[in-house]
Amino acid sequence: MNTIRLAKETDIEPIKKLYQETILSVNIKDYTFEQVDLWAKRGVDNNVWLHRINEEYFIVCEIENQLVGFCSLKPGGYLNTLFVHKKFQGQGIAKALLLNIEQHAQEVGSEEISADVSLTANGFFLKNGYIDLGQQTVCIGIPMINSKMIKQLKK
Predict the structure, then answer these.
(1) Which residue from 9, 50, 77, 131 has the highest number of Cβ atoms inside 10 Å of its Cβ?
(2) C-alpha pair distances (Å), 128 with each of 3, 30, 85, 99, 150
(3) Nearest alpha-carbon partner for 7 in 78, 77, 82
(4) CATH of domain 2-110
(5) CB 19 within 8 A of CB 110
């Protein structure tokens, strides 16, 4: 059984590891090695994660005390992160995290959630009611393509 809870400072190391390993092993199917390498390196700074944990609604999912996924929502309804461990893909973890985030967004009065979604996660978000507003090029040291998406929340 999985447990979803708020992230803590002691989660930073497993969050960093999951983030980097997921990008390098799962997102490599849609991006070049250079792109995933630079993207993964963006997750090495502990201060970035500490800031997110303190300033965002940041949740983690655990199975038998192992961190298997995480998700965070910035104030204002921007979905900042959603990652699931490479060995736990397709088991409903991302959906459970996303539903928790959406419920929280509604509770704090957000009318929609927006996200910049990787090509890898595009289909997942479409299946969960997000509307693809089109592809965009972002620069992480080199250009890479993702999609701008939104979902209107029920009132």
Answers:
(1) 77
(2) 21, 20, 19, 9, 11
(3) 82
(4) 3.40.630.30
(5) no
Total-model pTM = 0.95
Report the distance separating Cα 32 and Cα 66, nearest Å.
29
Nearest to 5 by CA among 53, 74, 77, 76: 53
Q: Are 118 and 30 in contact (CB under 8 A)?
A: yes
Q: What integer pLDDT is reported at residue 1 of this predicted model?
A: 74
Q: DSSP character for 85? A: -
CB-neighbour burial class of residue 114 (10 A; exposed 0-12, middle 13-18, buried 19+)? middle
Beta strands in 41-142 (DSSP E): 57-63, 66-74, 78-84, 112-118, 131-139
Q: Which residues are within 8 A (CB) of 103 and not within 5 positions of it... i.e. 6 or more apart? A: none
Return the H-helix or E-strand segment holding 12. Answer: helix 12-25
Answer yes or no: are the C-beta atoms of 69 and 18 closer than 8 Å. yes
